[in-house]
Amino acid sequence: MSGPDLAAELARVYLQPVRAVIDADGWLVDVEGDAGFYGYALACRERAAERLVFLEGLPTDEPCELPMVETPNGRRVHVRTAPLANGGLEVVLVDVTGQWQQQQALQQKANELHLLTLEQQRLVERLEQTRDALRLSRDEAEHASRLKSHFIAKMSHEFRTPLTSILGRARRLAGTGGDADVVTGAAAIERGATHLLNLVENLLDQAQFGEGGVLINPRPGSLAALLDEVTELFAPIAQEKGLAFAARGAEALPARVLVDDLRLRQVLINFVGNACKYTAEGRVDLELRYDDGTLEVVVRDTGPGISATDRERLFGAFQRGRAHDEPGAGLGLAISRQLVEAMGGAVELHSEPGEGTTIRITLPAPAVEAASGATPAASRVLLAEDDPDVTEMYGLLLGEAGYAVANVDGGTAAVRAAVDGGADIVLMDRNLRDIDGFEATRRLRASGYDGPVVMLTASNLLEDRDRALAAGCDDFVVKSAGVAQLLDVMTALLRARA
Amino acid sequence: MPVPEVPPSDARAALVARYRDALPARAVELAALAEDARAAGWDHPSRSNLADFVHRLAGSAAVYGFADLSAALAAAEPALRGDGDVHEAGERVTRLVAALRDAAAG
Beta strand pairing status for A18-22 and A76-83? Predict the structure, then answer.
């Protein structure tokens, strides 16, 4: 087929042209192509307007185009008319059904896209509203939590101060060896104050846990002394209730271990206290065992036991057991488990109703060499302290322990003295005249001093300890902890560096 | 579970006795600083002076074995520093002055 013939054939197949000729009177005089393809039944000598209704209203004296006309069978045609010299009209129809269908499909897609966009906008608006509401709720909850924690901490401090005073005076009275009634009464006051102080410590710890952490401060201490303390506290209470009480340590207990003694004491008071409180008859036993750096504490009682349902509830804060006719804040078990876990240990509770309760605590507690008081040879202490009273006392204490003490009253002077090679160990007060102890320590480390640095402070604040360690201190000693504690820390650090 | 404390030497006992004897003078000093703070309308510098004094006293009291006094001073410090209630600050100082005198009396 020749090119023009092919083009003509392709045009015929794809465009399906139909040509109709109409005379000046409106009669169809000629039809070319397959009008039936479009549903038109065209024949000569018929009125064109009756068959090709789209001609109605169209001018006959000028060319016209109708881009898309629907045919009787639903197809779409492009119509072009042209006037003829004899007054008649030529009408050409070309198939544009495919284009029309594509347009329809595109329009459909556009409609769907528009709907999706509207839906997306709506969802985004809802998401933003939900996010804003959640943010508000979170802020309110955080604010409430902070208020609660601050209130608890403030109240706990308010209680702690007078309780500490009561405890101190009661201990002094109990130790006078005077009138028996006075001594007995003072001992009872001491036990009550200790119990209250423990409750306050629990409250404070609960607040601190709520704010993200509790300070754990492992230091060398005596397990035997701990046993004695717990016995002294609870043996009279058990005796008053007619309970047998025994606190014992295994033969293999090391003399001293590295553990947060204050927290461990708090945990034991909570667990042994609970055992004594809820046991009506029989006995309460406390046992310490030790194996290869792990301390095991077992508290056993012959009380009513705890059901499986109550066991898990009891370790939640502020929950108490069913037999809650005994007074108590309900914090002890929850706090104790959190404290043990904060110390790197674990708590197991074995109990069944009617069969008593056994609580087993395991925690790491490396054995520590007994402090002999012997000072590592040639140990020069640089004491950075600007209070003359403190300087004088520490100078005396450290001198009696065999240290050579040099004192500076400012952080800048401390850095200079230590870097000049004048110190085997630095005791850095938290508050100094020119720069604080944290900054002085940072500068000390930046200058290359790598000897031990111990920060001394009046208060045991979590944030102060964190800042001290972050600044480069090796340890942190509260001034009220006593001479022996400070000497222990210094000895351990110097020996580790030797 | 305390570490067995180091027995006090005569020299240390003498220092403690001297510190105790000086506590009434510290009480007077504390009251004077509080009066300065009141006169200054409890402004920031006067409160800082007062809180710094209390902080230092808390530290030395702890070192000299006056644990109760140290705890009371340390607990009062936050209320004296900063922008807290001035009435409460005044109350705290009154109680601290009394605590210092109690500690001096032994």
Answer: unpaired
